[in-house]
Amino acid sequence: MNAPLTGAAPDAVAAELPAHLPAHLPAYQPLLANAPTPEQLARTAPLPSFSAEAMAMVDGLAGVLMRSPQVRAYPELVALGFWMRKANLERLRLELERRRGDALLVPRGTVFHIAPSNVDTIFVYSWFLSLLSGNCNIVRLSSKPSAQAEVLVGAIGELLARPEHAAIAARTLLLRYPADDRVTARLSAACDVRVIWGGDGTVRQVRAIGLPPTATEVAFSNKYSLALLHAARWTAAPAAERDALALAFYNDAYWFDQMACSSPRLVLWLGSEDAGRAAAADFWPRVEAVIAARHQRLSDIDYVNKLLAQDGLAIEHGGQVMATANNDLARTWLAQPALHVGHHCGAGLFFESALPDLDALRPLLNRTVQTLSYAGVQRDELRAWVAAAPLAGIDRMVPFGHALDFGPVWDGFDLLRVFMREVSIG
Question: What keywords does the record list, in alphabetical order (predicted)?
């Protein structure tokens, strides 16, 4: 059952609601004690960008995560703690200073973040980039049970209860509620920026809900990602290097059961088909060894969905699906490379093909392709390829092991700039 609204009496809350919203709305569940209401946040002055208060809060949570024995069971939380350390925050600040030059940037005000259900930690990255920009924040977490999210919320609650973080607590509303357009409308009415992390259906549903005329929005909808390996260079690499790359690929694909938008689903071998198949015969056993040593069992529904996807792919497109005995890893070689999005369910299902050269990748690209993770291909080669002609897709290219690394530029949006506005003085 939802907890009651906090921060104001019901009559006072109703009096603050925009005229187009009903006076009595279903309660959301605030996740922090003494949380402000959306209307209170809308009236609260933002902080300067990279304020001492925001830096202390983010670095404080990093310390809690890095010291917690409980967190060690969740590598994505360890990575989050590493991202939030003070040295990285300072790097972000300096990079913003460099990129904005003489531009005068100020916080937009209040940012409403709608977090996805498939990546438990994304709400913290989105919230903290906005917090570092100086904004007040409303963060809707998924109602889907998640041990990682509960660990994070507990740690955040403990920190924000401390007097030294009172300024951040007064500017933060973390909450949950079942899908309800009326609650979303109320939260949207209080914001200056709305950030939608979710599938295409979520984006369409939320976009149908109005924003204040002065507010803006950015949406991160369904995206799909690729892995690119140079076949001949893979075969020639030392065995220890191939083992390290297999582990890096596993981290990219399996941390969120392959459901992160940046996790690879299509594996492409650069070279002839014979060279690709030969390299694949060495690559996949190394990945299987990592899975056997490190991966916890998938859920029963994941195994069932993967079997259905494999059967559908075989019926409609032909080709043999090869899977490990326990079906933790399944792959199929495609004569013609394609995403086959409709047949993909995550959980360790990979499509595979060969490309004679980089230009053969261009016809596959569209705006739904997000990350290209690569091994055996040089950064300069990729830069020259991108510079030669505009790409219809791909927002980022990273070496194996970095597909899940979060940065302030995501899906082509510079979030620090999205969360700030520029004031011009003539």
Answer: NADP
